[in-house]
Structures are given as structure tokens and as C-alpha cells.
Design goal:
By secondary structure, the protein is α/β, with parallel strands linked by helices. It is built from 13 helices and 20 strands. The protein folds into two domains: about 325 residues, Adenylosuccinate Synthetase, subunit A, domain 3 (Adenylosuccinate Synthetase, Chain A, domain 3), CATH 3.90.170.10; about 110 residues, Adenylosuccinate Synthetase, subunit A, domain 2 (Orthogonal Bundle), CATH 1.10.300. The strands form five sheets. A ten-stranded mixed beta sheet has the order 9-7-5-2-10-1-11-15-19-20, sandwiched between helices. Strands 14, 16, 17 and 18 form a four-stranded mixed beta sheet that branches. Strands 3-4 form a two-stranded antiparallel sheet. Bound molecules: guanosine-5'-diphosphate (GDP), 6-O-phosphoryl inosine monophosphate and magnesium ion (MG). The site of 6-O-phosphoryl inosine monophosphate has 24 residues, from helix 4.
């Protein structure tokens, strides 16, 4: 291999979520972005909500990579993202109004567009699943449930991409000659299913939707590029790219708790298809995990703390202390003890090279904290995760109990300053997952982070 071959070395990094999303990926991306030249999103869409807090100022990013707060970095929305142009414009305007220079933003011409009818379809499917669930209430054999999507049109937009004929990509928004036909094909396939939905006339009006799409195209035109060439040329020039995942590995369409997952590949496996940069350029994979578990929407969660008894009270306390309400939808997040069976599995799927542990501060004040190390099912114990909702629903968590810590750790500057019980908790995680905890986060702010 020649000296200059881009396969030499693996200069890029990835930040991925090892749980069900909201692990604090935005904060970690913001933290390590300075070591990189560009930050690229490769999956998901406006279902994501990534928070970055700098000197008390909170930024909530949905489509724009969290590296945008550094004016010298490129912020690239890759082809694997499903793009809602209205949400993107809202986000750009929001950043500009707060004095953030968004001129480094670039959008792939091959990213698929979330169209108005995709959002209507998402809502219609969820409503219909909910009605089916209610109709079967009391039937213990039924697993029917709404997914609890963000209703941002994510699943229908990815489905359209795979169905092809009526799909609209960002590049198509710039082509008034071919765009109307694509929209017409898409609408024709949806008319029957959406006809009775509220607001259907609007999203099924070809002329209106086409006008909206052309306007969106004009607004986005200056940002559009072939990002596969852009990113690969950066790598060839010796630059470093940071890939930012949306959602979480346990929501990955292939490796998550199917069918209660999102529509994309959230693990590092999504980087190749979602950007065109071969995954072997990624040498460092930081898996972000909370010190406990959360989940939004339906689906199994073996360590969930719920119910009228003490478990539910602990869950409520963690939810309140951790402000566990969705960045995108505001929904209360389901809360549970740390599930190391799940985290170990997610680290394996991603080939994680290091961990970033967030929300450690939230666990302060508990007499004891628990960690799930095995699952029990049919009287047998196993340390294997079960990425299928029916089988995972049947397991019982096996816990290891730790002494809690009462001290407020949110001002700690290094691991040495943490109470001994907190250090023991971190070391246990490192041993169980088999990789080092490189970053410990003890509060939302950029400054509330330790790397030593
Ligand atoms: P993401 O989707 O993975 O980027 O995570 P979100 O931003 O949706 O959710 C994480 C939430 O926790 C945000 O409100 C962050 O500001 C906050 N956060 C991040 N790290 C910490 C931490 O270590 N402690 C506390 N208390 N909050 C944190
Ligand atoms: P970030 O990037 C938490 C969940 C939804 C739902 C399921 C499918 O902020 O971590 P979708 O709208 O994608 O079809 O919903 O996935 N979900 C997330 N949960 N954080 C996210 O993103 C999520 N993105 C999707 O709640 O259960
Ligand atoms: Mg989030």
C-alpha cells in the first residue's frame, strides 16, 4: 500500500449511542469536535434531538451536526439522513438569531426528503396501530402496539427511499423539470390510505406540495453538494472527520429491539451507506452511555423502574433529577437501572474503542444503585442481549447492587475527585464492557466533563 493511500491509518472518529437514544451524544460530539475538521451526520432525521450546553446557553440540534458551534468546522448532513427542509430552515434561523455562524453547513444532494405526506403517513400508521391495540386490550397473546414514533415522518421517508419511484432527494428539489412527476407518483400511491386523515387534502394536493418543494429547494440550493466526494477528499487531504450518530444502537433497524426501532442504521455500520466514507477510515468509536437507562416510545426495557411501588418512585426521582423529557417531543422518558447486557451488546455491534459515561451526577443521593449484568429466562441465566422485542419482553434482569454516593459530583474535574463508590461503579462498567471509560460527564455543560 502506498504512503498516500487513504486506507493508511484510520483518522476519523464516530460518536454512537449505546442505548435507546438521548445518551448525550450531542454533548460528546461538541466536546471532541475541536480535534476534527468536519462533523458529519449519517442517519436519522428530525427525530433526533441533540443538546449542547455552553456556558449555560442550551442549543437543541435536530438535523444540523453538533459541531456547528465551532465556526471553523464543516458541518455535513450526509446522504443517509432523511431531511425535513422546514425543520432545517427553522434550525438555521434559530442558530443565526443567536449569533452562530452556520456557514459551514453542507447538505448531501442525495439525502432523501421528508415530504409533508410522510408525516401524515407516520401519524396515520401510529393512530391505526393504537386503535388495533385498544381493540385487543385484554388479549394476552397480542403484541400489537403503536411504536411511539416521533411522528416526524422518518419511517415513511425511509420506506419511500427503498420503494424508489416516488422518492424525492435533495437534488430533485433543484430540478423543476422532473420533480412534479416524482411527487405525483408518490401521492398516487398514498391517496387511498390517507384520504380520511385530518389535513389529507393539503398533503395530497400535488400542486401545493410541488410548490412547497421547489421553494424548499431554492432555500437549500447554496448548501447542496456531493458530500461523498467532499468527505473522501477531506480524508485524502489528511483531515479528520467526526461522524455523529442519531438515535441509539438499540433503536437500529437491524440490531435494535425490532420492531420497536427507528428506520435507520444508527450503529457505525450506517457510516458507509450514510456518507460514502468507508467505515475502515473510522479508527476511534466512542460509545456514549448514561449511568442508567432511558427509553422513549414503546418496546421492551428489562430494567424499567415503573409502577406504584418503590421502583416507580426511584424511576420518578431519576427522571426529575436527570430532566428526562424528550428534546424533540417533550415526552417523559421511561427510566431504568443501567442494563450492562444491552450496553455490552451495543459496544460489540459498534466495535466501540472507548466509552463516554454521562449523567453520573444524577445518581447522587441514592443509598444503593443497581446494575443489570445478566438476564434470566425460563430459569436460565444468560449474558446475551436479545434484539427482538418478543423474546426480550420475557426476560427478568439479574442485578448487582452497589453502594450509592451522597456527594454532589457535578463540579468534579477529574475521576480522582469522585467519591470512591462512584469510582467503583465506573470501574465495574469498564470491566464488564471490556473497554475504557474515556470521558465522564457530570452535568449538561461542556465544562462538566472529565477526561482523566
Ligand atoms: P442525545 O440525543 O444523545 O444528544 O442526548 P439529548 O441531548 O437528547 O439528551 C441528553 C440530555 O442530558 C440533555 O438535556 C443534555 O443537556 C443532558 N446531559 C448530557 N450530559 C449530562 C450529564 O452528564 N448530566 C446531566 N445532568 N445532564 C446531562
Ligand atoms: P436522539 O438522536 C430517543 C425513538 C422514538 C420511537 C422510535 C421510532 O436524540 O438520541 P421514529 O420517529 O424514529 O420512527 O421513532 O425511536 N427515537 C428516539 N428516542 N432519542 C432519539 O434520537 C430517537 N429517535 C427515535 O421515540 O420509540
Ligand atoms: Mg436526544
Amino acid at each position: 500500500m502506498s504512503e498516500n493511500h487513504p486506507n493508511r491509518g484510520s483518522p476519523c472518529s464516530a460518536v454512537v449511542g449505546l442505548q435507546w437514544g438521548d445518551e448525550g451524544k450531542g454533548k460528546i460530539v461538541d466536546l471532541i469536535a475541536p480535534e476534527h475538521d468536519a462533523v458529519a451526520r449519517y442517519n436519522g432525521g428530525a427525530n433526533a434531538g441533540h443538546s449542547v450546553v455552553v456556558k449555560g446557553q442550551r442549543f437543541s440540534l435536530h438535523l444540523i451536526p453538533s459541531g456547528i458551534l465551532y465556526p471553523s468546522k464543516l458541518a455535513v448532513i450526509g446522504n443517509g439522513v432523511v431531511l425535513d427542509p422546514d425543520k432545517l430552515q427553522e434550525e438555521i434561523d434559530g442558530l443565526r438569531s443567536r449569533g452562530i455562524d452556520a456557514s459551514g453547513l453542507i447538505v448531501s444532494s442525495r439525502a432523501h426528503v421528508v415530504m409533508p405526506y410522510h408525516k401524515a403517513e407516520d401519524a396515520a400508521r401510529e393512530d391505526s396501530l393504537k386503535n388495533e391495540r385498544l381493540a385487543r386490550e385484554g388479549d394476552q397473546t397480542s403484541a400489537v402496539s403503536e411504536i411511539g414514533t416521533t411522528r416526524r415522518g422518518i419511517g415513511p421517508a425511509y420506506a419511500e427511499k427503498v420503494q424508489r419511484a416516488g422518492a424525492v432527494r435533495v437534488g430533485d428539489l433543484l430540478d423543476p423539470a422532473s420533480l412534479p412527476e416524482k411527487i405525483s407518483i408518490a401521492i398516487a400511491t398514498k391517496r387511498a390510505a390517507l384520504a380520511d386523515q385530518p389535513g389529507a387534502a393539503e398533503v395530497l394536493d400535488e400542486a401545493k406540495v410541488t410548490q412547497w418543494a421547489l421553494r424548499a429547494g431554492e432555500a437549500i440550493r447554496p448548501l447542496v453538494q456531493d458530500t461523498a466526494y467532499l468527505l473522501n477528499n477531506l480524508v485524502r487531504a489528511g483531515k479528520k472527520i467526526l461522524f455523529e450518530s442519531a438515535n441509539g444502537t438499540l433503536l437500529d433497524v437491524d440490531h435494535g429491539t425490532y420492531p420497536f426501532v427507528t428506520g435507520s442504521s444508527c450503529s457505525v455500520g450506517g457510516i458507509g451507506p450514510g456518507t460514502g466514507v468507508p467505515v475502515q477510515r473510522v479508527g476511534r468509536v466512542i460509545g456514549v452511555m448514561k449511568a442508567y437507562s432511558t427509553r422513549v416510545g414503546s418496546g421492551p426495557m428489562p430494567t424499567e423502574l415503573v409502577g406504584p411501588g418503590p421502583d416507580g418512585q426511584i424511576g420518578d426521582r431519576i427522571r426529575t433529577r436527570g430532566r428526562e423529557f424528550g428534546t424533540t417531543t417533550g415526552r417523559p422518558r421511561r427510566v431504568g437501572w443501567l442494563d450492562l447486557v444491552a450496553v455490552r451488546y451495543a459496544a460489540m455491534i459498534n466495535g466501540a474503542t472507548g466509552l463516554a459515561l454521562t449523567m453520573l451526577d444524577v445518581l447522587a443521593g441514592f443509598d444503593s444503585v443497581r446494575v443489570c449484568t445478566k438476564y434470566e429466562s425460563d430459569g436460565k441465566q444468560s449474558d446475551r442481549f436479545l434484539p427482538d422485542s418478543a423474546t426480550l419482553s420475557a426476560v427478568r434482569p439479574v442485578y448487582t447492587e452497589f453502594q450509592g454516593f451522597s456527594e454532589d459530583v457535578s463540579a468534579a474535574k477529574s475521576r480522582r475527585e469522585l467519591p470512591v463508590q462512584a469510582r467503583a461503579y465506573i470501574e465495574f462498567i469498564e470491566q464488564a464492557v471490556g473497554i475504557p471509560v474515556e470521558i465522564v460527564s457530570v452535568g449538561p455543560d461542556r465544562a462538566q466533563t472529565m477526561t482523566t
